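[Discussion] Sanity-checking designs against the backbone

I'm trying to build intuition for which residues belong where. Below is a structure token string of 201 positions. I'd appreciate it if someone posts a full sequence so I can compare it with mine line by line.
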């Protein structure tokens, strides 16, 4: 094998490795978009009491906005009731205020020891609103996935400028689209599960 063939083979190998890295990076970025979407869905309550309903609540704690989970333990008493047990009793009112300020439609009752939150049943209209909210989150996740696809394609175009062959370029485009389709499908599946959860009375 002469020097020219050797450098071509080496270059081809490097290009293949770079393509593999682009695919892996795309998958990792999509996974982050999906995980973020999943955590946003968890905040949308579906009528059943769940500690994740309070995951976005911030509490004024020693003059700093602090996540509720860092100042109290949230547990489920039954399908309709949450219990918030603060680490320090003196924070009960601040925690109650944080929950009300979070605008979740929840009204915590302070018994001096803990907060009891009765989760009201959802009206048909409220359920539809929540499905819309979940749908909007799924669109955001898909935008994230599409942006990741664009970044990956840009990187492949750079490789083409560096000498990636037309065939390899076309194959890379197909691979990137396949990864994107799989991630979009996962977003749809998560949305479908959540929609069913919200609409089930």
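Best answer:
Here's mine. Compare freely.
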């Amino acid at each position: 094998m002469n020097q020219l063939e050797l450098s071509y083979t080496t270059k081809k190998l490097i290009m293949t490795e770079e393509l593999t890295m682009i695919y892996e990076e795309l998958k990792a970025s999509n996974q982050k978009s999906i995980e973020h979407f999943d955590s946003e869905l968890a905040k949308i309550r579906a009528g059943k009491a769940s500690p994740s309903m309070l995951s976005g609540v911030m509490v004024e704690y020693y003059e700093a906005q602090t996540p509720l989970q860092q100042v109290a333990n949230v547990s489920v008493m039954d399908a309709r009731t949450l219990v918030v047990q603060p680490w320090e009793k003196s924070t009960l009112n601040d925690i109650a205020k944080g929950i009300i300020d979070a605008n979740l439609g929840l009204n915590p009752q302070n018994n001096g020891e803990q907060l009891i939150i009765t989760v009201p049943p959802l009206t048909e209209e409220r359920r539809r609103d929540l499905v819309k909210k979940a749908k909007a989150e799924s669109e955001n996740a898909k935008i994230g996935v599409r942006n990741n696809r664009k970044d990956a394609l840009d990187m492949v175009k750079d490789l083409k400028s560096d000498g990636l062959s037309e065939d390899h370029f076309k194959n890379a485009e197909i691979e990137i689209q396949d990864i994107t389709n799989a991630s979009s499908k996962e977003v749809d599946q998560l949305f479908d599960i959540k929609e069913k959860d919200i609409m089930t009375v």
